[in-house]
Design goal:
The structure holds two protein chains of two kinds. Chain A is mainly beta. In chain A, about 0% of the residues lie in helices and about 50% in strands. By secondary structure, chain B is mainly β. The radius of gyration of chain B is 13 Å and the shape is globular. Classes of the chains: A mainly beta, B mainly beta.
Chain lengths: ~110, ~110
């Protein structure tokens, strides 16, 4: 089954404790992206990647890092989480760049930073 | 970064009613998309529009690409309980890796 898989789905952590949210897709997509969803703000892009070793900032990259060492994986790293990073995070992938617009999303990871 | 404004923010309707929502942008897009997010899940693509003035249907859903290329509309006819969720518009341009999402319209169906 074609899918985007995120882990963990739920996480409660404390300020400053480094964490990684993993994302894996099995569709051989070149494009992958991370979004955060907050009430009233919709989906905002954090980082995206056009291909292996190619990453770029989205609209809200501060406090986040990403890496793309393999085509299928695109982890999101919070080096020193803060309460304002409490949010619902989505990983997404697309066959040919975000410009095609047809993204496949994971089920989301709800993060709470205390 | 830019966000698209969706209206209304939320809707409370009865089963069987028709629904209309829209999305506006301060800049032009050459692709408009509509996604739906079911509770507890990620968004799923409903309809994609690639040409100004285009009207596209997917079952009970109909979406239009505004002539100005700065807006789009989504209509749902004869709503049913499974229509509940958040509807997001999104805009992009060919050659641009960035997809800009709207703020969302939350649809609730009153029993």
């Amino acid at each position: 089954e074609a899918q985007v898989t995120q882990n963990p789905r739920y996480l409660i952590t404390v300020t400053g404790k480094k964490l990684t949210v993993t994302c894996s897709q099995n569709m051989n997509h070149e494009y992958m992206s991370w979004y955060r969803q907050d009430p009233g703000l919709g989906l905002r892009q954090i980082y995206y990647s056009m291909n292996v070793e190619v990453t770029d900032k989205g609209d809200v990259p501060e406090g986040y890092k990403v890496s793309r060492k393999e085509k299928r994986n695109f982890p999101l790293i919070l080096e020193s989480p803060s309460p304002n990073q409490t949010s619902l995070y989505f990983c997404a992938s697309s066959v040919a760049g975000g410009g095609t617009g047809e993204l496949f999303f994971g089920e989301g990871s709800r993060l709470t930073v205390l | 970064g830019q966000q698209l404004n969706q209206s209304p923010q939320s809707m409370f309707i009865q089963e069987g009613e028709d629904v209309s929502m829209n999305c506006t942008s301060s800049s032009i897009f050459n692709t408009w998309l509509w996604y739906k997010q079911d509770p507890g899940e990620g968004p799923v693509l409903l309809i994609a529009l690639y040409k100004a003035g285009e009207l596209t249907s997917n079952g009970r859903l109909t979406a239009q690409f505004g002539i100005t290329r700065k807006d789009s509309f989504l209509n749902i006819s004869a709503s049913i309980p499974s229509d509940v969720g958040i509807y997001f518009c999104a805009g992009t341009n060919f050659g641009n890796e960035k997809l800009t999402f709207g703020t969302g319209t939350r649809l609730t169906i009153i029993p």
